[in-house]
Design a protein that fits this description.
D-Maltodextrin-Binding Protein, domain 2, 2 domains, 31% strand
């Protein structure tokens, strides 16, 4: 009887079925390295990834787990913080070579900006300096996109400067494809969240996926714990 109970508990604890996950285009590349071992270890677990930078109705999409960034709206969903990323001001080496004048904090409004598209068409910056200085800016991007990855690609192509998430830009900066500008100035860090339906007991597939994502992100350069 004890063995039967133990087997029943093990069955309940083993992740199985379909895990429906929602994430942004930029974060989608992290799904395989974060969850690959979990999927390999549990053949009964299947994964469906919904990739979209726009907000989607998580309930209608029957999402079990969503990756979200920044401030969360009040909802009936539970959230666990996975870490945070910094915003890096970046440009391509070609752009830096072409613009001989040094980039200063007060010269930012005059630059050609690439920005994430929003309803207002305005890019808002809240820059914090090393001595506690602060600059609040409202900028109109020359090029805007609703896809953060495309902004990074255009930045690397020399079309302008952009605020890029450290988890996305780290490799390009490390290889010299991008250059950080004004590294002593920072915007407030952006939290990364795992958002799930509010439940008293989460299914094993959700709980173990969140744990795997947290472990993975803790090891990534450009992510703050």
């Amino acid at each position: 009887a004890a063995q039967a109970r133990a087997e029943l508990v093990a069955t309940r604890e083993a992740p199985s079925g379909v895990l429906r996950m929602s994430t942004t285009v930029g974060f989608a590349r992290h799904v395989e390295p974060a969850l690959g071992e979990l999927l390999t270890s549990h053949p009964a677990l299947r994964l469906r990834v919904l990739v979209d930078d726009a907000s989607i109705d998580l309930i209608n999409a029957r999402v079990d787990l969503a990756i979200r960034f920044g401030s969360l709206a009040d909802s009936n969903w539970a959230a666990r913080r996975l870490g945070s990323l910094q915003w890096w001001l970046c440009a391509s080496p070609a752009w830096v070579a072409k613009h001989a004048a040094p980039v200063l904090i007060d010269s930012l409004p005059s630059l050609q900006w690439l920005g994430f598209a929003n309803d207002s068409g305005v890019l808002r910056l809240d820059m914090r300096g090393p001595n506690g200085d602060q600059r609040l800016m409202r900028l109109e991007p020359r090029i805007s996109s609703n896809n953060q990855l495309s902004i990074q690609q255009m930045c690397a192509g020399g079309l302008g400067v952009a605020m890029l998430g450290s988890i996305d830009a780290h490799d390009d900066v490390a290889t010299g494809r991008l250059v950080r500008l004004l590294p002593d100035w920072q915007q407030p860090a952006l939290d990364i969240w795992a958002v799930t339906p509010q439940r008293d007991a989460q299914p094993a597939k959700v709980r173990l996926a969140i744990d795997a994502l947290h472990r993975y992100l803790r090891e990534q350069p450009g992510v703050l714990d």
